[in-house]
Amino acid sequence: MNPLYLAPTTLMDALPLVLISAAQRAGYDGLGLRLHPSPGLPYHPVVGDARLIRDMKRALTQSALKVLDIYSFY
C-alpha cells in the first residue's frame, strides 16, 4: 500500500504542532511542513524559534511520522 502524506495547505490555519498531531491522529504516514510564508495563506513562523523547532522534532519522533517535503520558498 502507498504511504499517505498530509500537505500543510490542507489545514492552512493549523499551527505546526497541531498539524503534526492531526496527521498522527488521522493515521497519515507523514506530512509536509511549511517553513516560509506562502502567498495568500496564513503563516506561523518556525525558523528562528528554537523552542518550537525542538517541540516539532519531539512530536515527529514520538508520532513516527515522516517528513515528505518542506515548503520553503516560492
How are the SSEs placed, and which strands pair?
Elements (H helix, E strand, L loop, with lengths): L4 E2 L9 H10 L4 E5 L15 H14 L2 E6 L3
Parallel strand pairs: 1-2, 2-3
Helix pairs in contact: 1-2
Observed structural traits:
74 residues; alpha/beta; three-stranded parallel sheet; 18% strand; globular
Structural commentary:
- This protein has 74 residues and is α/β, with parallel strands linked by helices.
- The protein has two helices and three strands; from the N terminus they run βαβαβ.
- It has a three-stranded parallel sheet, covered by helices on one side.
- Helix 2 (50-63) links the parallel strand 2 (30-34) and strand 3 (66-71).
- The radius of gyration is 12 Å and the shape is globular.
The succession of helices and strands, N to C, reads EHEHE
User: Which word captures the global form?
Assistant: globular
Per DSSP E runs of 2 or more residues, the count of β-strands stands at: 3
Q: How would you characterize the largest beta sheet?
A: 3 strands, parallel
Taken as a percent bin, the fraction of beta residues is 15-25%
Mean pLDDT: 93
Indicate the structural class: alpha/beta
Strand order of the largest sheet: 1-2-3
Distance between the termini: 32 Å
Which spans of ≥5 residues are poorly predicted at pLDDT below 50?
none
How large is the radius of gyration?
A: 12 Å
Roughly how much helix do the residues carry, as a percent range?
25-40%
Our count of helices gives: 2
